[in-house]
Design a protein that fits this description.
rod-shaped, mainly alpha, two-stranded antiparallel ribbon, 174 residues
Length: 174
């Protein structure tokens, strides 16, 4: 029965232990292999904050041999749903570039939205309040001057054939 038992490789066991005790990244002992630490990081699938903290702690204790590129790749896949990157960039640089693009686009959309809202508010304000300059309306027509003849009254002004009678209607009221 002992022969039929499945024994996990040592690396997988170490990865599980590190996943349960994430404090190991504060100061991992030298006997823990760099490959094991990298697999453990990949196994726990950390967030951006957790990954940067783990990298900083590993660098502080002199463990520069840990390759975190696969972890960064999984983080890019999980966050931005992309499988490829430019060949000259690392996954870490690609992640930060994508993050900057998203932030820039978010700011641009916010600025455009603010401009549209300001424009709409100004339009509503203009439609709501209109200042009309008061005009003095004349009730009596101003007499007009016609050269030598002087002024004409309303009754003696020229009329067209289509204009109606001068006085009240001669037809009976209904």
């Amino acid at each position: 029965s002992f022969q039929r038992m499945v024994v996990d490789p040592l690396v997988d066991q170490c990865a599980r232990v590190i996943k349960r005790n994430q404090g190991v990244f504060k100061n991992p002992p030298r006997r823990v292999d760099a490959r094991t630490i990298a697999r453990a990081l990949l196994y726990i699938s950390p967030t951006l904050q957790q990954l940067t903290v783990a990298e900083n702690r590993l660098q502080a204790c002199g463990r520069d041999d840990v390759d975190t590129s696969k972890v960064w790749r999984s983080l890019v896949k999980k966050t931005y749903k992309t499988e490829s990157k430019p060949s000259k960039m690392t996954w870490r640089d690609f992640f930060y570039q994508k993050q900057d693009e998203v932030e820039r686009r978010r700011r641009q959309v916010a600025e455009e939205t603010k401009k549209i809202q300001d424009k709409d508010a100004a339009k509503k304000q203009n439609q709501k309040t209109k200042v009309i300059a008061p005009r003095i309306q004349r009730t009596i027509a101003k007499p007009r001057s016609y050269g030598r003849r002087g002024t004409r009254s309303q009754a003696s002004q020229p009329r067209s054939l289509l204009s109606g009678p001068r006085g009240p209607s001669l037809l009976p009221k209904r």
